[in-house]
Amino acid sequence: MRSTVDFLLHDWLKVESLCTRDRFADHSRETFDAVLDTCERIARDKYAPFNRLVDTQEPHFDGEKVILPQATHDAWAAYAESGMLAAAQDAQIGGMQLPYVVEAAANAFFAKASVSIGAGMLTTGNANLLMAHGSPMQRQVFAMNEFAGRWSGTMCLSEPQAGSSLSDVATKALPDGAGFEADPLGPRYRLFGNKMWISAGEHELTENIIHLVLAKIPDADGRPVPGTRGISLFIVPKKLVDTEGRLTGERNDVALAGLNHKCGWRGTTNTLLNFGEGKFRPGGQAGAVGYLVGQPGQGLRAMFHMMNEARIGVGLAATMLGMAGYEASLDYAKQRPQGRPITGAGKDATQPQVRIIEHADVKRMLLAQKAYAEGALALELYCARLVDEQHTGHETAAAEARLLLEVLTPIAKSWPSEWCLEGNSLAIQVHGGYGYTRDFPVEQYWRDQRLNMIHEGTHGIQALDLLGRKVVMDGGAGLKLLAGRMQASITRAGQVDGLAEHATALAGALQRLGAATKAAWATGVPEEALANATPYLQAFGHVVLAWIWLDVATAAAEPGRRAAMRYFFAYELPKIDAWLGVVAAREDVCRTMDEAWF
Amino acid sequence: MRSTVDFLLHDWLKVESLCTRDRFADHSRETFDAVLDTCERIARDKYAPFNRLVDTQEPHFDGEKVILPQATHDAWAAYAESGMLAAAQDAQIGGMQLPYVVEAAANAFFAKASVSIGAGMLTTGNANLLMAHGSPMQRQVFAMNEFAGRWSGTMCLSEPQAGSSLSDVATKALPDGAGFEADPLGPRYRLFGNKMWISAGEHELTENIIHLVLAKIPDADGRPVPGTRGISLFIVPKKLVDTEGRLTGERNDVALAGLNHKCGWRGTTNTLLNFGEGKFRPGGQAGAVGYLVGQPGQGLRAMFHMMNEARIGVGLAATMLGMAGYEASLDYAKQRPQGRPITGAGKDATQPQVRIIEHADVKRMLLAQKAYAEGALALELYCARLVDEQHTGHETAAAEARLLLEVLTPIAKSWPSEWCLEGNSLAIQVHGGYGYTRDFPVEQYWRDQRLNMIHEGTHGIQALDLLGRKVVMDGGAGLKLLAGRMQASITRAGQVDGLAEHATALAGALQRLGAATKAAWATGVPEEALANATPYLQAFGHVVLAWIWLDVATAAAEPGRRAAMRYFFAYELPKIDAWLGVVAAREDVCRTMDEAWF
C-alpha cells in the first residue's frame, strides 16, 4: 500500500507543491516521508498484531471501570507520542503544521492495521473544533491537553430517541447558578439527558475524557427551542478540572449507562452516557457541569464545522478496511493451491493443482477489490487535498475547493462504506471456507466495515444531503464545478494512448447523470425527487470513481493501475444506468407503498 | 410468512393437484396444512427463542465431548419426533410420503427460526442417499435409524488440500483383510485421511453419527486413481454397530481434529475429522472401518444424486434468513419514531416525529427485502415442485422437470445467497446503529447468511456449472426449455391488467440473455466465455427472478405482491445489462491480469 500512497500523493496530487505556501514552508518530501514512515511503523508494531485481540477481548465494565486490553493502552501511548494528535496545529503550540492530505494518508496506516483500536480521530476532531470555536482558555485547558494525549475527546450528538434527527435532541442545559457566565472556563451550565452511540465515551486510556455535548438551553418560558436552531455546544469533562488543567478531584455527573455490544469494531468502547442523573454530584448538586462553546444556538454549526474532515475520516477508514481485505486475500490467493486450468495439459487430474490466483474468477475478485480500495484511496486523498486548498489556497481556489467538497463529501463518506464492504465480502469469498473462520482476518474486516454505512450520517442521510442540497444549492454551482473538473480530465485523457474510449465513456456517463439530476427535479416536488436519493447517490459515486480512475490512469501507465481502471469502466460504470433509470423516471413504487401491503 | 407460503403452494403452484397421483393419494390440503402447522409450532417454540443463545454459546470441545447448549438437544428431539426426517419416505417404513415441495416449505420454518440449530437436512440427505444407493442391509441398519432420529448423518467430501476440487480427494480406503467383501453391512474397508468443513461431524445429540465419506480405493499398483472417477463412497459410523443396529461398544477410528470457529452459523459444529489416525483401534487395528456403498468408483455419482435437493436446501436457508431479516426490520420500522416528512406541516420540528416506515428510503429498503425474500421463496418452491415432477410426473413432464432443474439449480442455490445477504444488510440499515448491536437479531442473520455463497458449491462453482455446462449441454436444450416456460408466462401476463409492460420488459431481458450466451461462446474458447461466468450467473439469476415475480403477479392482484414485482422490474432487472455487457464482450481484463500487477 505504501507505494500506492506515495504515487497518489506525489505523482498524482503533487502535494510537495504545497511546501511553497507559507504554512507548509518548513515541510518537504523528506518531512512528509518521515511522518508516513513513523505512522507505518507504529501501525505495524502496535496496532496490526492486536487487531484480532481487540475483537475477542471486547470492552467490559467491571462495575467501576471499563477494561480494555493492554495493547490498546500501548497503541494509544505510541500514537500520542507520535505527535499526530496535533498534526494540523501550529508549530508554535507544538503542532506539526502538516497539510491535511499528509495527515490523512499517515492516519490511514492505523485504520488499515486496526480500525477499531483507532487513532485518535475523535480526540483530534474534538480539539481542532475547540481551536476554531473555543475561548482562549478553553483552547489552553482542553484542546492542549488533548493534543498532548493526556486527555481524550468524544462527540456527543445522538440520543436514544433521536438518532439521525438532531432537531430532536432533548438534553437540556440550565445555567449553573448566579454568576454562571463568569466561569473562566466558559459560561457554566448543568446538563441533563442521555447520549447514545458515544464512541470512546468511557475508558481508562487517558487521565480524563472531554465530551463535546449538544444540548438545548430552555427559552424564557423554560421550554427547549424546537429544531436545530436551539442546539448549543458544551464542554463536559468526565472529571472536573481547574484553569491550570489540573484535575480538581471531583467527578462530573456523567455516568456510563451501558456499553453497546457490536457486530464488529469492538476495539472501541461505544457507550450510552447519562448526564445529570445524580450518580456523581459535583459541588453537591446533580447535573453535569458543562462549559458553553461559542454562542448559544450555534452548537450544530460549530459541531459541523469539521464535518467534511470527519466524513473523509470515515471514508478513509472504510477504504483501509477494503485495502486490508485486498492485501490479505491477494496473499492467500498467491499461496493456496486449488483446482486446475479449464483446458490444456494442466487440466488433467494427474497434474498438480495450481494456485487459485491463476483462476480468472479469483483474479476478478482481486481486481474488483483493487479497483474499490485504491480508487477509494485516491478519492479520499483528493478530497483531503481540497481541504488544504480550502484552508491555504488563494481566494478563488479556496472557494472552489469548498464548493467541490460540499458535493464530494457525501461520496467520500458513502462510496467506500458501500463498495469496500463488497470488497471485504469478496476477500472472504477468495478464501472460501477459511475466510468464514476466525482463523483468518477477513471476516473481521467485513464485520468492522459494516458500521461505516451507519455512523457519521447514514447512507440515506448522505443521499438526501447530495440530491436534496448539494447538487441543487447555488443553482447547481457545485455540480457544474465538478462537471468542469471532470471535463478537464476527459480532455486530458483523450490525448493519452489507450484512454480515449474511457474518456468518451465518462463523458457519456456525466451527461446521463446531469440529465437524471434534472429529471429528478423536473416537477419540483421534493418527495418525487428524493424517493430515489439512494440510487442517485450510488450512480453519482460510480461516476466520480470512474473520473478518479481515469485521472489516475492519465498520470500513470503502470499496467496494474491501468487494469484496475479498465475493470472499473467495464464492470462498474455500466451499473449507473439501472440506478439513474429510477431517478430519472421518479419511480414511485417505494414511496407510494402502503404500510399494510408489506 | 405463513400466508405467503400458503399463497405460493396453493394459489400459485396448486400443489394440492399432486394428491391425484398414486404416491400422494392419501394426502390433501388438510394433511399438508397439518405438517406446516406442526413445523411452524416447533420452530416457534423450540428454535426461534434460542437463536441468539446458539450464537453466543458456540460448540466447544471439553477434551472428550463436544458440548452444545441444551436447547439444541431439545430442538433436535422435537424435530426427530415430528417425523420430518422421513418426510419423503414410504408410509410402509414409517415415512410420510410427502411431496418434496411441502417438505421444503415445512422445513423453511426451522431455517427462519434458527438456521444454525438446523433441522436435520444432512441426516435426511444422508439417509435418503442410502435408500437410493445402499444395500437392503445398509438401508435397514443405517438409514432407518437416521429416519428415527436415533442417529444422525454427515457428508464428508472436502479435505484441507482439496476444497472445491474433489478430484484431489486423498483419503484412501484399503480392503479390511481377507473376506472383507463378505461383511453383511457391505464390503469392509479401512479409511485413512482428513476431512474438512464437516458439519455436525461431532456432537452428543444422537447415540451415533453416520458419516458418508468419499475416498479412493488404490488401483492394482497401490496408487490412487486420479480424478473423480477414482472416488468411492463409504459408510463410516462413529461407533461400530452390528446388523441389528446395536452399538458394539467399539469406537471407530474417527477422531475430532478440530472445531472451526466461524463468523456465524455457530449453532452447528463444523469439524476437521481424522480418519484412521489410530486414536481408536477397532479390532486392535488403526484405520476407520467403512462399508462401501454401491460400486467402486461410483461415489461421486451417488453423492451428487441428491445434489439438486441439497442445493435447493441451501437456497431455502438463505431465503429464510432473508425473510427473517425482512420481518424483523419491518417490525422495527413500524415501531421506531425518527425524523419527519420532507415537506408540509409535519416537517416542523414542533411536530412529533413519525415512524421510520413513513420515509420513502426506508420503504425502499423494506420493499427490496420483500422482493428478494418472497421472490426467492417462490423460486425455491418452484424448484421443489419440479423435484416432485421429476420423481412422480409422467415421462415427458419428468424429463422436462429434470432438465429445468439442471439449469435452475445453480440459480436456486446462488441467487438467495447473494441477494438475501444484501437484504440482510438492508435489515441492519433500517435499524441504524441498533442493527449493528447484538441486542437485535439482524446482525446475526447477516453473519449467518454469509456462509451460503461458500458452502455446497461456491458462487464461482455455480457460475461455471451454469455457463460452462448447464446452458450448453444437449445443444442448449435446458436453456431453450426454460425460455419456453418464460415465454408462456410472458404471454399469460400480457393479458393481465397492468402487467403488459413488465411482460415486454422480461421478453427483452430474455432476448438479451440469449444473445449474451451466444456471444460468450462465439469463439468457442472456454477461457474466454467463462472468465465472466459470475456476472453471467448474476444476470441469469435476475432474469429468472423477474420471470418468477411476473408469474406470481399474474396469479395475484394483491397490491403488496404487485408492488414487489414492480420494484423488481424497476430497480433490479435493469442491472442485467451491466453484467451481460462484459459477458457478451468476452471482457478479458480480469483473466489477462498478470499476478505481478496486483
TrEMBL record, chains A, B:
Cofactor annotation: FAD
Keyword Protease: no
Keyword Flavoprotein: yes
Name of the protein: Acyl-CoA dehydrogenase
Pfam families: Acyl-CoA_dh_1, Acyl-CoA_dh_C, Acyl-CoA_dh_N
Ranges of residues in domain Acetyl-CoA dehydrogenase-like C-terminal: 483-593
InterPro entries from the UniProt entry: Acyl-CoA_dh-like_C_dom (IPR025878), Acyl-CoA_Oxase/DH_mid-dom_sf (IPR046373), AcylCo_DH-like_C (IPR036250), AcylCo_DH/oxidase_C (IPR009075), AcylCoA_DH/ox_N (IPR013786), AcylCoA_DH/ox_N_sf (IPR037069), AcylCoA_DH/oxidase_NM_dom_sf (IPR009100), Diverse_Acyl-CoA_DH (IPR052166)
Domain spans labelled Acyl-CoA dehydrogenase/oxidase C-terminal: 297-465
Entry keywords, A to Z: FAD, Flavoprotein
GO terms of molecular function: flavin adenine dinucleotide binding; oxidoreductase activity, acting on the CH-CH group of donors
Origin organism lineage: Bacteria, Pseudomonadati, Pseudomonadota, Betaproteobacteria, Burkholderiales
Family membership: Belongs to the acyl-CoA dehydrogenase family.
Annotated organism of origin: Rubrivivax albus
Residues in Acyl-CoA dehydrogenase/oxidase N-terminal domain copies: 33-141
